[in-house]
Amino acid sequence: KLHSDLDKGVGTVKYTLSGDGAGTVFTIDETTGDIHAIRSLDREEKPFYTLRAQAVDVDTKKPLEPESEFIIKVQDINDNEPKFLDGPYVASVPEMSPVGAYVLQVKATDADDPTYGNSARVVYSILQGQPYFSIDPKTGVIRTALPNMDREVKEQYQVLIQAKDMGGQLGGLAGTTTVNITLTDVNDNPPRFPKSIFHLKVPETSHVGSAIGRIRAVDPDFGKNAEIEYNIVPGDGGNLFDITTDEYTQEGVIKLKKPLDFETKKAYTFKVEASNLHLDHRFHSVGPFKDTATVKINVLDMDEPPVFSKPMYTMEVYEDTPVGTIIGAVTAQDLDAGSSSVRYFMDWKNDVDSYFTIDATEGTIATNELLDRESTAQYNFSIIASKVSNPLLTSKVNVIINVLDVNEFPPEISVPYETSVCENAKPGQVIQTITAADKDLSPAGQRFSFKLSSEASNKPNFTVHDYRNNTAGIETRRNGYSRRQQELYFLPIVIEDSSYPVQSSTNTLTIRVCRCDSDGTIQSCNVEAIFLPVGLSTGALIAILLCIVILLVIVVLYVALRRQKKKDTLMTSKEDIRDNVIHYDDEGGGEEDTQAFDIGALRNPKVIEDNKIRRDIKPDTLRFTRHRPPAEDNTDIRDFINQRLKENDVDPSAPPYDSLATYAYEGNGSVAESLSSIDSLTTEADQDYDYLSDWGPRFKILADMFGEENYDPDKVT
User: Fold this and answer.
1) What is the 3-state secondary structure (H, E, C) of 447-487?
2) How does it sit in the membrane (predicted)?
3) Structure confidence at residue 621 (pLDDT)
């Protein structure tokens, strides 16, 4: 209620209200000044309101007093229950936890004023979930209330929690939430086999490494705590089997390590142990976390293929053995109880298998063709054995046949040798070491012997020295050899082997005489090399020849250009009717220059160029055909020139003016006489060239060429 001292109660004063909530939440009586709430208030929505009030004159509308401000506070009542803002809750706790193990803390919020009364004081309690869990009434911490709660007995728990204000007193408001608690697993249970004996039946034909059965131990734990490892306890049959763990089913998979044979052993018994991989030390007192069971395996008899007595057969036979000769046998048996007969046949794969045959009943192998070790030294094929009672059951074995050598080939020189001997060689000098080879398969310790043939042993040029180690040396027997006298020597060598029967062959070794320096280094081995400059290598000679070829090409190009220039000059001067003087200024090269002129052109008139008629002369008379008798090959050049001169004198088509024709001819009066040997009457054998030896060392090669004896074929060895 508002009241002004100036209000006399006569209705001259008017009260006004403004501010927070004026007109919407609060209203004022303009005459009396009473303030009323026009709707319900909520402290949790707005705890206080600030208002302004003023008294004004009704007539003048002027304020009678200054505006005053006041605050209206909303008093709290317990109208809000506690709420769990994070609920419902999910929690977990390990199984077998002790009493009081912490699980979770819950919290409820009350919107009432905590400073006024007990409206916001909350107390927690469990409505559902006892006696397994407990809660602190003030803090809301949930803990285990029973010891050794077992996950394998019960895993999930749902606990209902209540929060009540007013300190839990009667009349307080309450709120609830749910807490889902899960017991997590610990390894508190060992694996256990559901039965003590497992029986398995396994066919004897089971393959090594195949799974033949499964056993399983049960572990109520979960996850890694339930992982089991299986092991075979050493004992009867344990070495024939193995066991592994299936990681998905945790079963023990028994596998075969070695083949089974019903005829050898029909049953096996061994023990298998199952244990946990991850142990918890807190539960060691419970006992060993493992269990043992017995496995009995019965081997089932199956119809099996025949079994060969050996995994592989190796046989030997001499080459050229007659067809049909038995070289060995294979044996296979039916080990089953019925013991069926066995039949043998070859596994045909290629033509090589046709060299042998096998007896279907006895299994003996014989040759079907003649064998040649030099063609094929070893044969590899397969033999198949099948049961008569069940031909589909077969087994296979490899057979290797080695062809033994028969001494049928003589030894020969292993490689072609290029043997040379120096001209200045001394007696007893080894010029070549030779070895031999035999196409036969040489047995251990076989020896080859070397010697000269009987016709060559009497010649004093070379000898063969056998070193007794399958090698031999070629030694000289003369003091010096001459290339001019004999360039090649052919030495027949007889080589024998030590096998039976003894085989031998005669091999011819070619020995070339070469020029060597004083140290024995070969300089040249061919006859033409004697004319080459001494001391020049092959590369240098090739370079010199290339230079000569280049110079010749340059000279030819130069001459061709000059002739082309002269031809152009003559073509221009043909229009001149004056005397034509043809001048040849080429200098001859003498008798040795065969390129200066063609002697055949002088001797053969058919190659002479036909006469040409001058352009400025047109003869009235008919030209006579010039009959040129062919010159004989032995016609003297002088007669040939005279004949041509007469022809020109009587030829009416010849130019009327002077013309100069030049003919070159050498007379018989040469002071130096002819150096040619064409007309020499004596032969080379009639001449004496001993005087060349007196001209000095530069003419030594020339003296050797013309001073040696003629070639004697009888001296060739």
Assistant:
1) CCEEEECCCCCCCCCEEEEECCCCEEEEEECCCCCCCCCCC
2) Single-pass type I membrane protein
3) 45
**Alpha-carbon radius of gyration of the chain:** 67
* Domain 16-73 sits in CATH 2.60.40.60: yes
Domains of the chain by residue range: 16-73, 83-184, 197-298, 307-404, 412-524
- Residues 549-584: tens digit of each pLDDT: 999 999 999 999 888 876 665 555 554 444 455 555
Higher pLDDT, 277 or 704: 277
pLDDT tens across 279-335, in order?
A: 877 777 676 788 899 999 999 888 888 889 999 999 999 888 899 999 999 999 887
Q: Per mean pLDDT, which range of 125-134, 204-213, 500-509 is the poorest?
A: 500-509
| Residue 422: CB atoms within 10 Å | 23
Domains 83-184 and 307-404 share a fold: yes
- Residue 386, strand partner residues: 343, 394
Closest CA to 136 of 146, 126, 149: 126
Q: Which pTM value belongs to this model?
A: 0.41
Class of domain 307-404: mainly beta
Which backbone phi and psi does 466 adopt, to 5 degrees? -80, 125
pLDDT (mean) for 501-524: 87
DSSP character at residue 130 = T
Q: What CATH number labels 83-184? A: 2.60.40.60
